[in-house]
Amino acid sequence: MGRGFLGTAASFRADLTLVVEIGMGAALLVGTVLARQRRYRAHAWCQSAVVLLNLVAIMLFMAPSFSRQVAPKITAGLGHSYRALALVHAGLGSVAELLGIYILMVAGTDILPKRLRFARYKPWMRMALVLWWLVLLLGLGTYVRWYIGPARLRWVRRSPCGRLTSYAARGGASRVTERTGHLAFIWEDGAR
Amino acid sequence: MRKVNSTIGVTAALIMAMSLAAGNTGKPGAGPQNNNSGRYLVNIDNFSFGPATLTVPVGTRVTWTNHDDIPHNVVSVDKKFASPVLDTDEQFSYTFNTRGTYEYYCSIHPKMTGKVVVQ
Predict the structure, then answer these.
(1) Distance from the Cα of residue A82 to its chain's centroid
(2) Do A73 and B85 count as a contact with CB atoms less than 8 A apart?
(3) Which of A10, A40, A41, B69 would bridge A147 by S-S if both were Cys, CB 3.0 to 4.6 A apart?
(4) CA-to-CA dists, residue A1 to A10, A190, B79, B117, angstroms
(5) Residue B38 half-sphere exposure toward CB, CA atoms < 13 A
(6) Cβ within 8 Å, pair B87-A76
(7) Which residues of A touch B109 (CB under 8 A)?
(8) pLDDT(A100) > 50
(9) Residue A91: which of A159, A158, A35, A139 has the closest Cα?
(10) Under an 8 A CB cutoff, do A69 and B110 touch?
C-alpha cells in the first residue's frame, strides 16, 4: 500500500518527493550556470519553474505529511530528534520558498511597488540558493531519520583473519565482537 | 524398625505429593505467549510489528506499543481503526468484537504490515 521505490521504509510519496527535490536542487545549480553564461531568459525560466514546482510539492506532499505526522505532536516538545529535524526543515523551507517567490515577483513581474523591490539581484539570489540547498540537506536528513533511522547504522569490523564480525549500534548500546581490524560503515534497510 | 521405615516413607511420599500440588496451584491456564493478564500485545520495533500475525478470541483488546526510536501508527486496511502517530513508548489499543481477519499497516512506513485474526 503506497510502498516506496528506494528500498527504504518510506512511502511512495516520500520517495517521489525526495527524488523531485534533489532534481530541483540540481536544476537551481543549472540555472546558476545559465546566469553566469548570461543566458538570462533561460535562467529565469529554469529558476521560476523550480520555485513554482516546489510550491506544488509542498502543498501536495510535504504539508499534508507535516500536518499528519509532525504537527499533532508539536506541543509535546522537541525532545525527539525526528520531530525537531522535520520542524527545522519545514521552517527554513518555508522561508526559502517565500524568498524564491519574492525574487520571482521582483525579477519577473511588476506586481510589487518600487519600495518593496530590491535593486541588486545577485546577493538575494545567492542567498536563496544557499538557503535552498541547506533546506535540501535538512530534508535529506529528515528522510534518513524517518525512513532509515539511526538504528540501522551498523559497524562492520574485519578481524585479522578476514572474517567479518559486526555489532549494531542502537541508542548508545552496542555489542562488540571483535576489538581489532578495519572499520567500515554500512547502512542497511532495517525492515525485516 | 520396619514400622519406622514405613512411617518415614509414607511421610516422604505425602510431602512430595503436597509439594507437587502446591506447585500446580495458582498458575493460570496456558494462553497465547504474549498474554499478560488477559492483554494481547504487539510490539512495534525495528520497522516491524511483532508478532506479525496475532490470533485472538472475540472481544479481545489488543495493545500496540511503539518501542522503535521513530514514530509509527497503526491503520487498518479496511479503515476499521486508525491510531494517532505514536511516539516511542506510546500505546494504542483496539478491541476486536467481531470475528475476521484484520490487516493493518503503518501509513508512515507502508512496508510495515501486520494481521490480527479474530476467532
Answers:
(1) 13
(2) yes
(3) A10
(4) 11, 18, 13, 20
(5) 5
(6) yes
(7) 9-11, 147, 191
(8) yes
(9) A139
(10) no
